[in-house]
Amino acid sequence: MSIAEFEEISLTVCVSGLVFLMVFILYKLGKDSSAGKFGTFVLFLALGMGIFGFAAKSVIKLIIDI
Q1: What's the pLDDT tens digit per position in 23-53?
Q2: Which of 57, 61, 38 has the alpha carbon at shortest distance from 49?
């Protein structure tokens, strides 16, 4: 395994772990602050756009390499 492969795998694993941590934090924030359904939806929508961007980057990278 080369250094570049290791870096790519660790980036994907670590960022995915951070995304799951952010989802938990946002759930807890929405629940504890009594944001309601709409407020919690907005919190998750903002996070979802970030997750979508990260996933889209990986997909675009695979498409360009082919």
Answers
A1: 898 889 888 988 888 988 988 888 878 878 8
A2: 57
